[in-house]
């Protein structure tokens, strides 16, 4: 097998994979958890070493590095990607810096993991795909972080669909609902600014459900018809850097929200199946509610992230009198990822998706195999997001209904 640039730098026989990460807020914490835990739970061909964490504020990044288990810290991502002890760069920053960091890291001879959505535009995503394919010939790998593929129930659903258990696909029905913007006084964080985030609920939540729908079905979205809305167009500025979703508002000054609050769209898939998608941050009471149902000629599958150790399966070939949705507890050692975890019934959670993501990427690096989802998969999702925005902007495709009251 050809020696990769990363392997060439590693002392002979050392099983180390040096990771450098940019960004340490919510996603950075989740990815750190993944890198820290993967090698302790799974038997990996390379041991992830948390080499250095990067952020602009020296004191804050050092404190975060200590808290999350990173050996070093940097305040400039260019210094991070130049480090000899970093083989792989993990990008957990807002979307406006994904393309620049990813392309530079690949050119510097590093493998790359980039948080979703891959970029803020199709053009940026295309540049990232081009950089990834040039780097591939030098033995370097690039992956986009759609972590929900790594839910055992989702990976298992994919196996069932691919194995023909639901037959020919007719419908995919997906929602991703959160409520952290319901309060009109919630602060204007970077996630509400188009120049930082690219889009709103569409890119943040819609990207996940488009990827999951395509992954589970094994198909691509080939066309969309969409509506988007910004319900609250102005918000108070944040009091300080907002790490998680909310943060505190500063009194007085306000600014414009420049992204969508919600996106609803229908789609046609490559087989002709019909799909519907809803992504919103205004579904009061829904915290992180992702549901997906697939209906086929032989059966149906249904998943709910709030019950993530379960998968519902209806086998339509069974006699009607006894058929019906049954709950599969996805905690058996035969289910994806679960042979390394707890005994049956002792379920997993959100954070484990990041452990599985790290595990899969480490295997890919060790084996020199392209890790999925690739940057090309991320670009395909980006194209769907762009089509949704284009459709929503074209009021002409929206047929108004006369209101008679
Ligand atoms: C915020 O809406 C968010 O943190 C997303 O950015 C993540 O991708 C998702 O996993 C949880 O919600």
Automatic annotation (TrEMBL):
InterPro entries, sorted: Gfo/Idh/MocA-like_OxRdtase_N (IPR000683), Gfo/Idh/MocA_oxidrdct_glycsds (IPR050463), GFO_IDH_MocA-like_dom (IPR055170), NAD(P)-bd_dom_sf (IPR036291)
Q: Where is the GFO/IDH/MocA-like oxidoreductase domain?
A: 157-301
Q: Name one GO molecular function term.
A: nucleotide binding
Q: Which Pfam families match?
A: GFO_IDH_MocA, GFO_IDH_MocA_C3
Q: Keyword annotations for this protein?
A: Oxidoreductase
What this protein is called in its record is Dehydrogenase
**Domain Gfo/Idh/MocA-like oxidoreductase N-terminal: from-to ranges:** 18-135
**Which segments does the entry list as coiled coil?**
none
């Amino acid at each position: 097998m050809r020696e990769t640039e990363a392997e060439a730098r590693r002392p002979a026989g050392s099983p180390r994979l040096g990771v450098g990460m940019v960004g340490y807020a919510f996603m950075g914490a989740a990815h750190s958890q993944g890198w820290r835990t993967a090698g302790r739970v799974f038997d990996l061909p390379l041991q992830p070493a948390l080499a250095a964490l990067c952020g602009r504020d020296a004191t804050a990044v050092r404190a975060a590095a200590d808290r999350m288990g990173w050996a070093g810290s940097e305040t400039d991502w260019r210094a991070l990607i130049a480090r000899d002890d970093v083989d792989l760069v993990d990008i957990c920053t807002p979307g406006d810096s994904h393309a620049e960091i990813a392309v530079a890291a690949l050119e510097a001879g590093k493998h790359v993991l980039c948080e979703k959505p891959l970029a803020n535009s199709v053009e940026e995503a295309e540049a990232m795909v081009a950089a990834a394919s040039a780097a591939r010939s030098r033995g370097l790998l690039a992956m986009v972080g759609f972590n929900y593929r790594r839910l055992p129930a989702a990976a298992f659903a994919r196996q069932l669909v691919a194995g023909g258990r639901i037959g020919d696909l007719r419908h995919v029905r997906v929602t991703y609902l959160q409520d952290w913007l319901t309060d009109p006084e919630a602060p204007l964080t970077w996630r509400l600014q188009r120049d930082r985030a690219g889009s709103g609920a569409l890119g943040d939540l819609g990207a996940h459900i488009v990827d999951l729908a395509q992954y589970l079905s094994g198909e691509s979205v080939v066309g969309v018809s969409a509506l988007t809305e910004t319900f609250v167009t102005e918000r108070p500025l944040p009091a300080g850097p907002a790490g998680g979703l909310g943060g505190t508002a500063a009194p007085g000054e306000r600014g414009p929200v420049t992204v969508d609050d919600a996106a609803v769209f229908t789609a046609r898939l490559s087989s002709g199946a019909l799909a519907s998608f809803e992504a919103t941050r205004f579904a009061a009471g829904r915290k992180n509610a992702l549901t997906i149902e697939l209906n086929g000629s032989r059966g149906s599958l249904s998943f709910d992230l709030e019950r993530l150790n379960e998968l519902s399966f209806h086998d339509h070939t069974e006699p009607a009198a006894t058929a019906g949705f049954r709950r599969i507890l996805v905690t058996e050692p035969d289910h994806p990822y679960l042979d390394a975890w707890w005994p049956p019934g002792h379920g997993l959670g959100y954070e484990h998706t990041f452990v599985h993501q790290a595990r899969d990427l480490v295997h890919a690096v060790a084996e020199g195999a392209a890790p999925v989802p690739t940057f090309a998969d991320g670009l395909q999702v980006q194209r769907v997001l762009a089509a949704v925005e284009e459709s929503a902007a074209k009021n002409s495709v929206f047929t108004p209904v006369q209101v008679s009251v």
